[in-house]
Structure formats: structure tokens, C-alpha cells
Design brief:
This protein is an all-alpha fold and 316 residues long. The protein is built from 10 helices and 2 strands.
Amino acid sequence: MSHKPALAPATPNRGLLTLCIITLCWSVLVLQAGGFTTSIHAGMAFLDWPLSNGSVNPPGWLTEIDKFAEHSHRLAAAILGILIIIIAVMHSRAETRRRVRFAAYALVGLVVMQGVLGGLRVLLDKLNVGGEGNLKAVCFAVGHAVNAQLTLALLAFIALSHSISWHTAKKDTARKVRRVGITAAILVLSVILAGAMMRQGHWTIWVSSPSEGVFLPSAGEGHVWWINALHRSGALLAGLSVIIFAVMLARRGYSLVRWSSLIVLLSLQVLLGILSIQLPNNPHVRTVHLVVGAALFSSLCATAALVHRRAVDRRT
């Protein structure tokens, strides 16, 4: 006997929406703290994990910038984990839509994975295990960075599922719009992956020359040059796909905020990327570049999910 998905509630659950928005805002702070830690190369300010120098209040963390960055990131991440567990529990009790409940449970899984990846990044660093290379720690650090983006995107989708936009979506069967939205999200994630490899492996090349263009590095060689070139040139392709997606949304009657926010975030992201090249010693520019990239990716994923709902299933 088949079971049909439960019908969406007539009105959004304001309690769950508020909880999701609060958690989403806090997750941005966690991402900012983690990005700043990486920007100032403070990821190994403490050699142990999950405690910091064996304590939740290690000496010097309020006075030394590297220790403050890393420990505040850990504390904020712990609070985020608690908030997401609360989201899952509340959804198990108050949410009737099966897919949304499963999304809340999956969110817990992503957060647990995020903690494990962060811990392995520290424990398997060459400062702890010895040796000259640091490939294992870099791989876990890249996974930690990308998983954070996926966590934020899933949380954005769950929040959207409790919004008025989700509950009042009008029927739209444009398959092409869905495909372009998914393609844009994949391309942006690919650029984020290349950026994470640059940051975590310390393979960032800031130098550019007018003859080669601002998006191509004019120094470096081998895989370091290629990763930087892919990140910069890939951003052009991803940006074009975002613009096409936004134009399609505008033409099909989606709200101004829905499609214009993508353009605004994209424009800001490109500007910050250029500033990162021009101001290589400014960690704040690189950190904001990371956060805006996460906002763009999360908005893309949430909007693509909204388009999919309008085209396929109005009940979840």
C-alpha cells in the first residue's frame, strides 16, 4: 500500500521558521569565524581537539588573535550543533512533511560530519603526526570547508520551506529553468571547491597582470597555477550561469527579491574577489569573500528548490 506525502500546512509554521532563521544567522557567524581563522593561518593555534589546550577556557584565547580566532570558532560551532539538534527534534514533533523532516535529520548528519572533518584536520596535521607533507590535513580541511557550504545551503532550504513563498508558490512547469538553476549551483560549488583548495593548501596566488587579465594569475606553476586559474576563470562561467538563471526567473514572474538578490550577491562576490587580489594582506576581504560566496550558493540552492516545487510537487 503506497503512502502519499503529507499535504503542506495551510500556513507556515512561524515557530520553526524563526528557529531556522536564528540558526541560519548564527551559522553565518560560525562561517565567518572559520574563514577568518583560515585567512590568518590560525587553524593550528591549538594542537588538540575538541578541547583547546585541554580546556574550554584556554589561557590566552582572549588576548592572542590566533587563539581567539580558532577557539571562538570552536565555541560558536558547538552552539550551532546544539541549535541544529533542536531543529531536528522540533521537526520530528511539529513537521508533517516527510521530505522536510528528512532534511532536518540530514542537517544533523552534516553537522556531525563537519565536526569530525574539523577534528581530523587538526589531529592529522603534520604538527601532530610529523613528516614533511600535510596532504591528509589539507584534504580534511577542504572537506570541512565544502561541507560547511552544503550545511548552510540545506539549512536555507529548510527555512524556505516554512516561508510564505514556499506555501503560495504558483504552478510553473518550465523544466529549462530548473536545469539552469541546478547547473548554476553546481558551477558555483565547483568554484567554491577550488577556492577551498587554494585557501586550505595555502596555494593562493594573488599576482595578476593586465596582459593576462585579472582572472588569470601571472605567477606560480604546476597544480598551484591551475587551481588558481580554475577558480578565477570558473567564476566567470558560474557567474554567467547565475545571470541567465536570474533573467529566467524575472521573465517567469518570480519576485524581484528572489532574482535580484542573486545578481546583487554575484556582483558583490566578483568585487570582493578582485579586491582579494588587489589587497592580498587583508584577511577581512578574503573572509567576507568566503561568506558572500556561501550566501550566493545557499540562495541558489534554495531558489532552485523553489522552482522544483513549482514545477513538480505542490504538496511538500
